[in-house]
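Now produce a polypeptide, keeping tokens residue-aligned:
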Amino acid sequence: MTTGTLPALPTPGERLGRYTVERVEPLPEMQGTLVLLRHELGARHAHVARDDDNLAFGVTFPTVPGDSTGVAHILEHVVLMGSQKYPVPDPFFAMLPRSLNTFMNAMTASDWTTYPFSTRNEQDFYNLLSVYLDATFFPLLRYESFRQDGHRFEFETPDDPTTPLKLQGVVYNEMKGAMASPGAVMYREFGKALYPDLTYANNSGGSPSAIPGLTYEGLRNFHAAHYHPSNAFFYTYGRVELRRVLDEIESHVLSRFSAQTLDVSIPDQPAFEGPRRVDATYPGTDVERGGQVSVAWKLGHSTDPDLNLRWSVLSDVLLGNPAAPLTRPLIESGLGSALADLSGYRDNFREGAFAVGLKGVSAGRAGEVQSLVLDTLAAIARDGIDPELIESSLHQFEIGQREVSNAGTPYGLQVMFRLLGPWLYGGDPVTGLRLDTELESLRTDLARGRVFETMIQRDLLDNPHRVTLVLAPDPDLAARTEQAERELVGRLSAGFTDEDRARIVRESLQLQSLQAQESDPDVLPTLGLGDVPPTVARPPYTTEEEGRALVGRVPQPTGGLTYLDVQVRLPDLPDDLIDTLPLYAFAVTRSGAAGQDYVALARRIEAVTGGVSASVGVGGKPDSLDDLRLSLTFSGKALARNGDALVGVLRDVIAAPEFDRERLTQLLKQRLAGLKASVVNAGSAYAERLASAQVSPAGSIEERLSGLTALATLKQIVEGDGVNALLGRFARLRELILAGKPLLCLTATSDDLGLDLHSITGEFGGDAPVGHPAPSLLPGGPQARTADSPVAFNAVAFRTVPYTHPDSPALLVLSRLLRSEYLLKEIREKGGAYGGGASFDARGGVFTMSSYRDPHITRTFEVFRDARAFLDVTPLTERELTEAVLSASKTLDPLTSPDTVGRLRFYGDQAGYTPEVQEAYKARLLRVTLDDLKRAMDAHLTAENVAYALVAGRDPNPETEALGLHFEVQGV
């Protein structure tokens, strides 16, 4: 964020064209101002003026589907596939490399669809604004686009009607993969169970069995009804000129419409007369520990700011940390391994909900979980809540209100999502950003007596609108689903004539022709290489030696928060301790320390910090792929007034952790449940790590730290009762950590930078040199892991060159060019996968290509193999090169904020990635030529240098033998 001059703001009642300014509200917590406007057509506009050069925009439409055909989700895809002003096949993906955006996406929720973006470049903002406005309001909605991304019949060999008929489509395959995830099934069943008479009973993303019921006419009608200014909520943020944006929207969109009435209101769900139980299944094989049980209640309107605040606070009090009075008895019961998905208060329905339960349970124990939940809540309501727990939760709320961070989602879009909830449901959007009045009212009521205990009794225990949702794995469901799909195809095609089959062939060839058609992307706006900033951020900081430690102090406008990171560069570790590192990092901040058990430490962390964490990293030098080091980083944040307390917590966690067998067993089961659930959602990331581990020493370590190898190691410990041995390794590891080399980075305002850190630095008294691990590569050739997934995740990886090598920038550009010009077309558009791309880790020197939720295996590996031929046969020009360089440059300019910019610079400098080194890389990047791409590919992405991996629901070998590939297959 940089400081500039904010444009003048209008006043309430002022007319800006056909807009009326309804409200101007200061937002002191974020140093901003909210302006609310309404257009004559009914369009609403919220503008958050703030001194931030990362400008943001979003347009959101309430979408309330009446079925599970996925109409809102498929429409979200198709509107981005060509518009009146930009009639190219896929302007959304075409703009990705023509822009310096910091965020660009679209997403469909249960009852709304939104199209947001952000960028630090003002011209880029208006370029993207033009594309987004034209896409959403004036899409071409081509029939071929509907068939490509929605659903279609296609013969296995598209031009041969004698081959088997199948269903295909990007969203169809996406949702097949999504609905294999227990978390996704839980969410869909949750809405259906609590709100059975409302739109939430439908799958807005699309149920695979229902998607084929959506017609092209139905898609077009849904757009005409919902994507209209009278149903639009516009949002802008940052140092942007509001009047200019309003003029752009008026001239481009609003001037071409007349008012329209659309009823997208969602009524109240009629209350249940008594509690219900709902049973659901997902495709899974872990019948012993794969189930979930959740007890859920419907509450009041989520637009009520007082209710929203009180339930947000109460949810944190009950569930916000391991020692919370509802979390602790659930976990310690041993009935399950972790809290169920969706546990806590949820305001993303028109009427809010509270849920709590366990995952990692047997469906046969659902009654026990329900009884435990109800009995524990009754005891809390009867015995009361410790006022210190409430104060700790309010403290967390204060941190959340004051923190301005671009970590994860850009802050400007975080603000949008905070105000959208009440705004879309007819409430006051200000309450999504400011709750001063409600906080004051809550504190007044708390001073008078019991508040939350009454809510528990009235809104939960005495509330008949309760559902016990039981989700169980079904080992046969995947096979039955495949059979049902075959039967569906047979049923829908039962009456097909030869003419119908000829039509399917004709439409398939028409789609192929459209996909192969060369469009003129020059109709799209773009930036040039001159828009790429040649420099990198150089935030000032000071350094000092404190014993063995190096301390960096970074002054930043953090809004009164203090951030402290302690990176410990580790000495040489025995091989077994490398596998232990991620488990230690997970457990160390969730256990006890310095004489406090995990309950006491958790309450202490909640009371005085905004959270502490530990993470493991592997890094190297800019000029070597083999000179590696391992580090363990402890991080925390706190309000400045609690800086000393934060130091004390981190000191105890680092120097005096205490682990006991029972608690560690609970934690390992939690981690195992989380990792297993993540495989079907993040399969491509796991496949990429598995491939990288075969060619890169750093990749081999990463696979052992966070890949499927780490999952297998953890599974062996939990199921083999290896906790006692692990406790011994933890003790050895703690000693080696304190023998490491600590690098501390303190980020705070100038007034708060003098924090005394000696209590931490003084614990590191050893003199062991920093270690240089030299791990073996993962042996065995191509690797396959089978999981409960109906779609595949495929990957190849190549070891290439270090950061300072002249070819590294060319490989980075090559990855972006292959993604936009080749892999997206071949894997997503033609192959029907949800995603496909290439990436290059410039610091790790590994080049990967991968696919996500892919119906194919063999075909996709053929696409990977043909990447070099694509460069030869495709007449690439300077335009494609420029776009690839622009896209690559974004990876070198990550969006930062006061909490991250200093530590990135400090730790980057200590690792050798100084501003000079980074800027030299940028300069080489801007000079990359098309010839460089071919030369680098020929030199490094060779058949002798490739590794293969995949995650799928089947053994790939019967189909990959034709490629000469034989995979070693293991179950997850």
In short: The first helix runs from residue 71 to 78.
